[in-house]
Amino acid sequence: GLHGNSFFNKGDIDSALEKYGIARIFLTCLALEMEEDRETFINITYDVLMNMTACFLRKKEFIFAGKFCTIVLDLHPTSVKALFRRASAAMELGRLEFAVPDLELAYVIDPSNQEVCKKLGEAKVRFF
């Protein structure tokens, strides 16, 4: 994951995605071996998947970004970051009917999150 992050921070999204892809295969193998350490695995997976969603958003691959956020939300239903990113991807695709509920849930979970408040305002103006 660290190599993927250094590529990502430099803006080399394709290299980052490639590295995260390798990380994913590695994590799957690891998961099969360490069934008892499930929480650690889920946390590592969460970080990798969230990094991938950020890459897809930067590459304007909004459908992939949304799909990966959905996988993350299966693991962490209250992830404000995943809800926010999935809503952002939906808005880019013009799917405000999906963005608004995600942002409303994110707001309920973390009402002080300025990013969420701002994006929810934007979505509601465009949706209603």
Secondary structure layout plus pairing:
Blueprint: H1 2-10, H2 13-33, H3 38-58, H4 62-75, H5 80-92, H6 96-109, H7 114-127
Helix pairs in contact: 1-2, 2-3, 3-4, 3-5, 4-5, 5-6, 5-7, 6-7
Describe this structure in words.
- There is one protein chain.
- The protein is mostly helical.
- The chain has 7 helices and no strands.
- Helix 1 packs antiparallel against helix 2, helix 2 packs antiparallel against helix 3 and helix 5 packs antiparallel against helix 6.
- The chain starts with a helix and ends with a helix.
- The model has no long low-confidence stretch (mean pLDDT 83).
Any descriptors?
single chain; 128 residues; mainly alpha; globular
Overview in brief:
This protein is mostly helical and 128 residues long.
Contiguous runs where pLDDT drops below 50 for at least 5 residues = none
Number of helices: 7
Shape: globular
Number of strands: 0
**What is the N-to-C order of secondary-structure elements (H for helix, E for strand)?**
HHHHHHH
- What characterizes the major β-sheet? none
Structural class: mainly alpha
C-alpha end-to-end distance: 41 Å
Mean pLDDT: 83
Radius of gyration: 15 Å
Beta fraction:
under 5%
Helix content: over 70%
